[in-house]
Write a structure and sequence with these properties.
alpha+beta; Beta-Lactamase; 6-stranded mixed sheet; 14 helices; rod-shaped
Length: 487
């Protein structure tokens, strides 16, 4: 019974006693003055009895109304409490604070969540809450409750009535004191989906770690040097092969300038190296370049650099992943397989017939891969610089590209697997080399370009269209390049 109701009943009782005492005292005084045989005594006794009965009746009515009001409020309170417990996320359980943790109340939402009513718990689990938990979780939960008896947050598994196992997030509080008996009020939430996602994430992380470890092992065992560039901060990381190959620790900031500052790039390739990485941000397609990089012994080796870019959420390119592969032997082997009669003695490049045969073989076996044929014509009087120009030209192109020279002071280049942007970039680099030579002697050069298979699938047609583009460029009477499709 509430304390305020008790106080009201006590006050009513004391008031009733006081009224009856006053009436009784008045009655005694009348008896003393008039005696019991007088007519006044009879009237007084009657009045006293009637008033006493009225006071008692009024007190009883007040008491009944107080009890009815209390009962009504108690019903409303229980209904409100029931509404709250039935609508909280999950369910509510009330348990006695004893070793068996006996269940005294469960909300409807708990029944809906687990499938067990209070009667089911009494019958199947002997009324003990711990017996509802997954067997391997019971001791752990009991220990946690002993260590935190007043307030606790738990996670454990529970077996539903249909046999399914669910994960529970349990937050509870001990209410009351040990003298009068205390109860555990616990709010239970089903977090099975969250736990499933958490376990899936942990599994995914474990698998990712395994993949990363395999990836690291492959990188360590390969001859490639893999690098990852943050194109926003210009920070770079390398695979462990960097130090094995080059004998020094890499600079990890301000790439690619730091790579050049470390003296890693051949002086003649620096401009092309920096230009290559400037172009990396242009699009997300794979890009390739070949440059000379300093080796551990101080010499230079040829490396093929292949880069792929990654776009961020806003569509801009933010990262570049690439690899450096030592192709020095490959370039040497390519030169070694050519016989003496296949090489032009003046330039060291393939002669015209050999270059044409190689190009024809490539185009007949692959009519899909985009490629380009370039004819480079030099002006009269450039005979003296041809050998050196051929050497510079060889450095500009990849080992997979075919380079040749004709007796008419023309060079032929076939670039395999390239796009128009790369062809234009190479053309500008060639013209830049020609411009360097023109400072010492009055020469100029022009370039004619045709695209395969866009302009034709027949190599003879491709060659003719490159010639037409070269003539178109030469008619401008200045160094430059022309692509056939633009005529």
């Amino acid at each position: 019974m509430p304390k305020n109701l008790k106080m009201k009943i006590v006050a009513l009782f004391l008031g009733l006693v006081a009224v009856l005492t006053v009436l009784f005292t008045t009655f005694l005084h009348t008896v003393k003055v008039n005696g019991t045989d007088s007519e006044t005594f009879g009237i007084t006794a009657l009045i006293h009895a009637l008033v006493s009965m009225a006071v008692i009746v009024v007190a009883i009515v007040i008491l009944v109304r107080m009890m009815l009001s209390y009962q009504k409020n108690l019903i409303l309170l229980n209904e409100g409490l029931s509404s709250i417990t039935d609508n909280i996320p999950g369910g509510m359980v009330c348990c006695k604070n004893n070793p068996k943790f006996e269940v005294s109340f469960v909300s409807d939402s708990f029944v809906e969540m687990t499938g067990y009513t209070k009667e089911d718990i009494d019958i199947k689990f002997d009324g003990e809450f711990f017996k509802m938990l997954f067997p391997s979780d019971r001791k752990r939960v009991e220990a946690l409750l002993r260590d935190n008896p007043d307030e606790s947050i738990l996670q454990y598994r529970m077996i539903k009535s249909d046999g399914a196992t669910i994960w529970i997030y349990d937050k509870g509080k001990l209410v009351g004191d040990n003298k009068k008996g205390s109860l555990y009020y616990r709010v239970l939430t089903d977090i099975t989906d969250l736990k499933t996602a958490e376990q899936a994430l942990m599994k995914s992380k474990a698998e990712l770690n395994l993949v990363n470890e395999r990836y690291r092992m492959v990188l360590d065992q390969s001859n490639y040097i893999v690098f990852d560039i943050d194109l926003v901060t210009n920070a770079v990381t390398y695979s462990a092969n960097y130090e094995k190959k080059f004998g020094i620790s890499p600079s990890t900031k301000n790439f690619p300038a730091s790579f050049v500052d470390d003296g890693m790039v051949h002086p003649d390739d620096i401009k092309r190296f920096l230009s290559f990485f400037e172009k990396v941000k242009d699009d997300s397609s794979a890009k390739e370049e070949e440059i000379r990089i300093r080796s551990k012994n101080g010499g230079y080796s040829w490396y093929n650099i292949c880069v792929s870019t990654i776009k961020g959420e806003n569509g801009t390119i933010t990262r570049a992943i690439g690899r450096m592969a030592d192709i020095t032997r490959q370039r040497s082997d390519t030169a070694r397989i050519l016989t003496k009669n296949q090489i032009d003695e003046k330039t060291g490049l393939m002669n015209m017939q050999t270059a044409f045969d190689y190009i024809k073989s490539l185009t007949e076996n692959d009519k899909v891969t985009p490629s380009a044929l370039m004819l480079i014509g030099m002006s009269k009087g450039s005979d003296e610089i041809i050998p050196e120009f051929a050497s510079r030209l060889r450095d500009l192109f990849r080992s997979t590209d075919i380079l040749g020279y004709t007796d008419e002071e023309k060079f032929i280049v076939f670039m395999k697997n390239c796009n128009k942007q790369l062809v234009e970039r190479r053309s500008c680099e060639i013209l830049s080399v020609i411009a360097e030579f023109s400072k010492e002697t009055e020469i100029y050069g022009n370039i004619g370009i045709s695209l395969f298979p866009r302009d034709s699938e027949e190599i003879s047609e491709i060659y003719k269209k490159a010639q037409l583009a070269l003539v178109h460029s030469e008619n401008k009477k200045r160094s430059g390049y022309t692509i056939y499709e633009e005529i």
